[in-house]
Amino acid sequence: MSEQHRIEDVATLERLYGTPTETSIAKEVDHVHPVYRPFIEKAPFFVLATSGPDGLDASPRGDEPGFVVVEDDKTLLIPDRRGNNRIDSLRNILLDPRVALLFLVPGVGETLRVNGRATLSVDPALLARFAVGGKEPRSVMVVAVETVFFQCSRALVRSHLWDASRQLPRSALPSGGTILGTLSAGKVGGAEYDAALPARVAATLY
């Protein structure tokens, strides 16, 4: 990339893109407005972005719709379900509480963006509220909401994300076992990993 074509200041960026439209400003509020609440309650999936001293992290989070609870218009409650125990996002939150959430609802073009600050709780009463099949989450993330706004559908329209005819078969990409085997020089992963994966996932969802 040529140095003369690099954007290095906000003024240049704003001249290039222009000012936000009135609608871009009007859609942002500092709480979960009733018109935004359904986007959270109907979403089975969101992406959690965090920041810490070791860098940034974007983590997928998913469960049955309603798994993110709108406790009130300034508070979200999110159970931390079983994962790979890297806890990258949670480590970041302990050092930098700022979080950004992007909610997606299958079939809906608009997404919902929520920014705020998170704390982690192991309050027994709170954990019990999110138990599934008698299994409680390890912790619950409490998000103090600061800004909420919807994102228009252009990105999802361009990507054809919800178009079933555009879906790839899983075999079109390397399997988890193949990736692990390749990166570890055969120490972990492989065909046995792939064969055992469906049962392992089913047994460890919660």
From TrEMBL:
- Cite the InterPro entries for this sequence: Pyridox_Oxase_FMN-dep, Pyridox_Oxase_N, Split_barrel_FMN-bd
What SUPFAM superfamilies does the entry give?
FMN-binding split barrel (SSF50475)
Q: One of this protein's Pfam families, by short name?
A: PNPOx_N
Q: Which residues form the Pyridoxamine 5'-phosphate oxidase N-terminal domain?
A: 35-152
Source species, domain of life? Bacteria
Q: Sorted alphabetically, which PANTHER family does this protein's record hold?
A: FAD-BINDING, PUTATIVE (AFU_ORTHOLOGUE AFUA_6G07600)-RELATED (PTHR42815)
What protein is this chain from?
Pyridoxamine 5'-phosphate oxidase N-terminal domain-containing protein
Q: Which organism is it from?
A: Stella humosa
